Amino acid sequence: MSGRRDFLSMPAPENYVAGLGRGATGFTTRSDLGPAREGPSEEQMKEMLAKRAASLGQAAPSAYGVTEKKEEDEDEDRFQDPDNEVGLFSSGMNYDKDDDEADRIYQDVDEKMDKRRRARREAREQKERDEYERNNPKIQLQFADLKRALGSVSEEEWAALPEVGDMTGKAKRAREARMANSRSYAVPDSVIQAASQSGQLETSISTDSDGTMTNFASIGAAQKSALQVRLDSAANNPGTQTTTSTTSGTATSVDPRGYITALDKKQAMGEELPVEDINRARVLLESAVKTNVHNGPGYVALARLEEVAGKIHTAKKIIQQGCQMCPKSIVVWEEAIRLNRENLHNAKVIAASGIKLNPKAIKLWMAAIDLEQTPDARKKVARQALDHNPQSVELWKILINDTDDIERVKLLFAKATETVKLSEELWISYARVSGPEEAQQILNAARKAIPTSWAIWVHACRLQEEMGRVNLCDKIMERAVKALIKENAMPKREEWITQAEVCEEENDIVTAGSIVKATIGWGLDENDDRRDVWLEDAKSTSARGHHEVARAILAHTVSIFPYSTTVWHASADLEKHHGSTEALLSVLERAANACPHSESLWLLYAREMWQAGDAEGARKVLGRSFEQLPGNENLYTRAVDFEVDAENYAQARTFLQIARESAATDRIFMKSAVLERQLGAYEEAIDICNQGLQTWPGSWKLHAIKGQIYESLSKLKEAQEVYSIGTRAAPKAPVLYILLSRIQERQGAIVKARSTLDRGRQQNPKNAELLCEAVRLERRQNNINAAQKIMAAALQECPTSGLLWAEKIMHLETRTQRKPRALEAIKKVEKDPQLFIVVARIFWSERRLDKAATWFTKAVVLDPDYGDGWVWYYKFLEQHGTEEKKAEVLSKAAMAEPKHGEIWQSVAKDPKNFRKGVEEVLRIAAAKAE
Predict the structure, then answer these.
(1) Rg of the chain over CA atoms, in angstroms?
(2) Residues 413-424 pLDDT 10s
(3) Model-level pTM?
(4) Tell me, which fold does domain 831-930 have in CATH?
């Protein structure tokens, strides 16, 4: 056993490496005892590893215990990096021109497809955002109306608001305070003596016989005050740069440029800075200047401060020091010139010194020019400035503006454009002061000098318009577009529209039209919705007051889409509101010829012709429309309306007779029966209704008119029979059930009336009119509980019906609950004119007249066709409005020509009000409204 331990003292075998079997590698360092020896070589290591593997019966490793990779590993590594393919896919590394062209084609296709669907996608996304915001309103939107109401609070009301106090535990705190004040303690004399001497920190040193004292307390207070100033400055300017003094170790935080601006604002507002602020600012700025003696804006700020403080002499000294310490600072020299401006000689000397040190400073040259009093002296200085700065457009403009001789001005412009060839302003100004022919040559030279300038092309087009050569404007703009595209300097389509609007403002109408014609399609593909885009451009441009540009856009749109009725209607609408009658009729004539089968264009043409006072022309238009659209009932009814307005009833009856024979529809028979009823021929009206019902037994309007005729003749039994037959022939017509129930109610058959409405609700589920009539039936019978039950069920079926909510708020709620119910209804229904009218009436009852007028206006703007909105608004104005406002509402209602509304229809369709205008019907309806 003892002999086996000798291996510890034995030398290690040759090339022995400890832990080699575990994968370790050998190394030697100079710290080893003896001379450093070289470790085993790579071949020796491999040999040893191979022997060990053979003894263990394993495969030999390649090197240092790492086995060789198999083919599968190589195949797997081949596909690890898709950008570094090898083998079969190594062709992916060879990216040639064909691949690049294919990528570009695919990219263009993707961009076009995305552009085609962009408008619809954006509209859909906007709709989804609006839906989300509507379902999840922000808190600030929920209280927006309350915030707006704060604007009506007067200053006296604000001042009268009581202070909000904390009433929580007030009595308890007061009791504790009294108890605390009532306590007393015996204070020792030492405390009293120390308190009396606490504020007397004085130490004196006798220097002579007169007893002079040194107060160290005042010195400490001064140091504390200076420290407080710096702390306050740091707190007030957390974002400014801090300049640290390397010598004193102090730091100041100041923004000299910002302080200059603040001083200017104070001076402009006529305010005087407090002495404390001036002293504090002086400390800061002096520190800034001392820590950085080459800080030009610091000197300027300090000089401005002294100027504000009234120490102009000190300000001059400071700015003089700034000029010495910052000779290259332009702002310092400008401030020095300004401070010495009252003494022109000194100011000129300062300007000369500054220019000598900064000959390229254009601002200093301009300040020196301003110091001169005569034009000759100004021109002399300007020439000297141009000698040093020949590329300065500002200096050339000053020199030219000071020159009176036009020929001399032209020479200066020629020299300026030759020196500064890339200045559009100089070239265009040169062309303006020259004659027409010479201006053309100048603009041609300018176009060659600046091929990327669109302003030069526009001015050339305006020049041709001023010369009367309007036929060349389109050609010039076409050449301009081609040239700018070639130079890759084509502006966006929106920028061209803006430039066209500028030309319209300067009365260059033809140029504006040429710009629109040449550039309105830039950036739009033929597959895009160009028509909609151009219509939107015309609408927005017209809204900004540039009607000529809008007219040019629509004219170009019409030339591209001549068979689009939408474009023709937009063009006619523009001429109607912002053009002349002749232009409107001309547009409609072209529209009718381009779209002869458009019913709406023929009707609009005939109507505008009739309103223009040309009755014979309107009849001719209708005659032409009959040729293009034979048997069209709308054209016949429009012809009847014209003849009725002209009180030519015989001709109107003739038209209706022809229509019943050639273009028979239930509407024609209904129109004939209504006319006979209005003229008092009740028997003829009933006969026409019977004839129509034989062909169209399901026409509920014929049943309704026939029953109303019997009602007007006080034949309630016959009317009831007609309505009953109508409900069976047209079960999906809610109006017939309502008329039948009212007849039964007038006859006292309340149970039958309820049954009729129930039958109508079964045939027409979730119908707001029938549900509301059922509620009103119970309310008229003073059965409020039943009415409320029916209303609750009705709102479950139709939660977004403005009619039901209006009925509930105004007739089934107490006065105090109306406003909360109205708020709840608006949240569910959002925009409904009936609810707006209800809210306005609530404010009206509360005598909040401004709010009521606002909501009435919202209602008529939201739906001008809703006649009841105009009725209630006019009724409100009759009590609280001026004559001018009432006249305005009457005129707007006449333009809107409302057709719907319960009160409105009951008055407008009454035979007693036959041939009465909108204004007269509005007055009658307002008197009837309750």
Answers:
(1) 47
(2) 888 888 888 888
(3) 0.58
(4) 1.25.40
